Amino acid sequence: MTVQTTAERPSDIASANSMRPRAALRAGPVTHLGLALAAITRREVGKFIRQKGRWASALVRPLLWLIVFAAGFRSLLGVSIVPPYETYVTYQEYILPGLLGIVLLFYGMQSSLSMVYDREMGIMRLLLTAPLPRWILLLFKLLSATFLAVVQAYIFLLIVFGVSFVMPYLGVRIPATGWIYILPPLIGGGLMLSALGLLLSVYIRQLENFAGTMNFVIFPMFFISPALYPLWKLREQGAEYIYWIAQINPFTHTIELIRFAAYGKFNFLSFGIVLAFALVFFIIAAIGYDPQRGMLRRKGKPGGGSPSG
Questions:
Q1: Cα Rg for the chain, rounded, in angstroms?
Q2: What is the C-alpha to C-alpha distance for residues 297 and 299, in angstroms, rounded to an integer?
Q3: If 0-12 CB within 10 Å is exposed, 13-18 middle and 19+ buried, where does residue 13 land?
Q4: Mean pLDDT of successive 10-residue segments in the chain (309 residues)?
Q5: How far apart are alpha carbons 66 and 63 in whole angstroms?
Q6: How far is CA 197 from CA 34, 108, 170, 175, in A?
Q7: 290 by DSSP, 3-state: which?
Q8: Main-chain phi, psi angles of 89, to 5 degrees
Q9: Could you tell me if residue 305 is left (phi over 0), alpha (psi between -120 and 50 degrees) or otherwise beta?
């Protein structure tokens, strides 16, 4: 994974910190929250647009997986008729929900990199001094990261649609209504994975530790999931313990939620698991960023280094 950082513009920091205080004082609490969310989202979108290599790699990575894996394994791996499919499907059609999950997963981890960078540069300290509850500011960071992850997922879908015309043998088709139905699962999965990134940013103290930590999170979550192969194949090969690890992997249920929604079906079990993990990850992260109780307070104790804000 490529680690990229860019210098913050003063206007970005000022907008995230001030939250337009004069307008907020004259407005009600709902408008005040809206201004805060808009300021944080504007800053995140601005960073995303300036970091061209970041969003390009986020789209190229799953596209390469599609081209390489689908071209190499489509004649070797068959997918039986299992829910939500009502007939045999091509391998590239099977892995499409997994590739959408990759987009969400990698951007969720990239958002944790952004949080670590903001903390090292002191920007997070400025943000958290805004006149709003700390958990609300973190929730707004989470919402802005999810928004960008979902946008990337739909851009990737458009690219895949275009590739289908250039390389017909890699054609991937989902029902037209599936483009709409997958929106809630993408939002839910994006929230859960961005909350995981937020949680990791509490415990990753320096950018130098980011790559190593991510390798212990991204690749196990990705490979021990139905992103590239159906889980029943694990049982068929006798890998029972890996099968059950995959069953408790929240990324597994993010993919299944997207897969079912693409064909107009709803997976209640996966929805409950994704929602539960999203809440747990966010609550723990919010506690970690609370200087009265969390990790940041422990870092600020005598002998424990300066607070990281």
A1: 20
A2: 5
A3: middle
A4: 47 47 54 74 75 68 73 59 69 86 86 72 67 80 89 88 74 82 94 89 71 78 87 78 91 94 91 95 85 47 45
A5: 5
A6: 24, 5, 32, 32
A7: coil
A8: -125, 155
A9: left
- The pLDDT assigned to 31 comes to 74
Structure tokens at 122: 């002191």
Question: What's the confidence (pLDDT) of residue 55?
Answer: 64
Q: Cβ(162)–Cβ(59) under 8 Å?
A: no
What's the pLDDT at 184?
Answer: 94
CB atoms within 10 A of CB 30: 8
How high is the pLDDT of residue 76? 52
What was the pLDDT predicted at 86?
67
Instruction: Give the amino acid at 215.
Output: N
Reported residue count of the chain is 309
- Write down the pLDDT at residue 287: 87
Amino acid making up residue 2? T
Instruction: For residues 25 and 38, give the distance between their C-alpha atoms in angstroms, rounded to a whole number.
Output: 16
> Between the CA of residue 263 and those of 56, 150, 159, 268, what are the distances in Å?
28, 19, 20, 15
Instruction: Name residue 201's amino acid.
Output: S
User: Which two three-digit tokens encode residue 179?
Assistant: 């483009």
